[in-house]
Amino acid sequence: MLNPVRVRGPSSATERRSGRDRGQQVNRSAIWSNVKCLPKFLNKRLVTGREMDAPNLRRAGTILIVGVGQFAFCFALAEIYYPGYNVSVQTISDLGATCKSGVCEFVQPSSDIFNASIVLLGIMLLVTAYFLRMGSGSKSLSLFEGLAGVGSIGVGIFNESYGVAHVFFSAFAFFSIGIQALLVFKVAKPPLSYFSAVTGVITLVAIVLYGSDTYLGLGQGGMERMIVYPVLLGALAFGGYLMAIGEAYLR
Fold first, then answer.
1. Is the pTM of this model over 0.90?
2. Which H/E stretch holds residue 98?
3. At what angle do helices 219-250 and 54-81 cross, to 10 degrees?
4. How far is 117 from 138, CA to CA, in rounded Å?
5. In this structure, how many other beta carbons lie within 10 angstroms of the beta carbon of residue 170?
6. 76-106: string of b/e by CB count within 10 Å (b at 16+)?
7. Cα separation, 238 vs 188, whole angstroms
8. Predicted confidence band at 138 (pLDDT cuts at 50, 70, 90)?
9. CA–CA separation, 7 vs 2, rounded Å?
10. Going by DSSP bridges, is the β-strand pair 103-105/98-100 parallel, antiparallel, or unpaired?
11. How far apart are CA 245 and CA 239, in angstroms?
12. Which of 20, 85, 141, 213 has its CA 20 to 30 A from that of 59?
């Protein structure tokens, strides 16, 4: 008479943990398998399946959306509270401090709203950069995300009344976020990769035009907005992309 065969389950916590890890690797591979089908020049994955830390990517996306969202809201609010503000003629920095002929005016509450919101944006970009580095392993992308955060904090602290310091931090933030948008092209899948590349190119071209006083009929304030608006949209899209990666893995 044959003895029945017993099927033994995992007998220890180590074995159960090992099985769970294998299952996670399978899920990760499934998420990223379609990336391998992309053309070689697009096959610059954010991370490999083995290295991806989806919870941290989701945190990065959430913080990025909240940071950019609050800034966009406060940006509009500061414009509303500024009497007679002209988006074509006046620069964005005028919301924090309006300086003419060496005399600076702080229009309240616009000044406090704008300066506080852009400092908060900078802090949240730094936190985003941290979680992006932890979750993706991409040094260059997280670096320029962090540099954009440093520039934003500098713009809020050293407002227009600080002269050269404000110009430096503004240019620093503009270039950093423009380059960061281009780097997203290397790590994201279409259509976000194309969209982010377009926003980065528009921002960098607008920086050159702005620096050469070529406003194309938009005015100084209008051209400066051509620097900022595209990358704000790109950042919101990238934040949603990171959140979607996290959600897909956790399911």
1. no
2. strand 98-100
3. 150
4. 27
5. 21
6. ebbbebbeebeeeebbbbbbbbbbeeeeeeb
7. 9
8. confident
9. 15
10. antiparallel
11. 10
12. 20
